[in-house]
Amino acid sequence: MERTLVILKPSAVQRGIIGEIITRFEKKGLKIVGMKLIWLTDDILEEHYAHLKSESFFQRIKDSMKSCPVIVSCLEGKDAVEVVRKIIGVTNGRNAQPGTIRGDYSMSVQENIVHASDSPETAVVELNRFFSKDELFDYPHAMRSYLYSNNEME
Ligand code: TYD
User: Fold this and answer.
1) What pTM does this model have?
2) Could you give the angle at the alpha carbon of 18 between the alpha carbons of 21 and 51, nearest 5°?
3) Does 108 sit in the ligand 1 pocket, CB within 6 Å?
């Protein structure tokens, strides 16, 4: 099964919607295999957002992301990266489809509630960035046979 990184940004933490957001992933059938509250630093944000380093808003997103602690989580499931990206919606909350997290909770590009890995390769790198091996757990999912058919669980 595939794993992906989801960060509940300061916009989720401060608005008191952590539970609502996590509930959406749980209800979908994604398994939570890692979760912690951390305060991000410039060092880790410069790595995490390296692809945006030359953008005019780089300092602004770093300031936003370190304005309070965030929840970092690892979600597991078949095709988890793609499924989670669909659940969160496009970057700009104003353009995101209703029914997606950003579409339902955000009016902003920057204050868009969640981050999620955008490819399986990125997910591996991002999970290593935020979690040590002993912070990610393998455990049986009791509902497994009601979430997937046998051939989907391979
Ligand atoms: P990006 O990796 O392009 O989007 P996504 O989070 O959907 O993968 O951008 C990272 C974050 O940077 C984005 O979630 C919000 C912020 N951002 C801005 O503040 N302004 C912008 O114009 C863009 C493109 C992103």
Assistant:
1) 0.97
2) 75
3) no
Domains and CATH numbers, the chain: 2-40+68-148 (3.30.70.141)
Report d(CA 61, CA 67) in Å as an integer.
10
List Cβ neighbours of 12 (8 Å cut-off, separation of 6 or more).
18, 21, 70, 71, 105, 113, 114
Smallest CA-to-CA distance from 111 within 96, 99, 128 is with 96
pLDDT tens string 56-106 = 999 999 999 999 999 999 999 999 999 999 999 999 999 999 999 999 999
Query: What residues pair up with 73 in beta bridges, in sequence order?
Result: 6, 35
Q: Tell me the best of 62, 67, 109, 118 to mutate to test the pocket of ligand 1, counting ligand atoms within 8 Å of each CB and taking the most.
A: 109
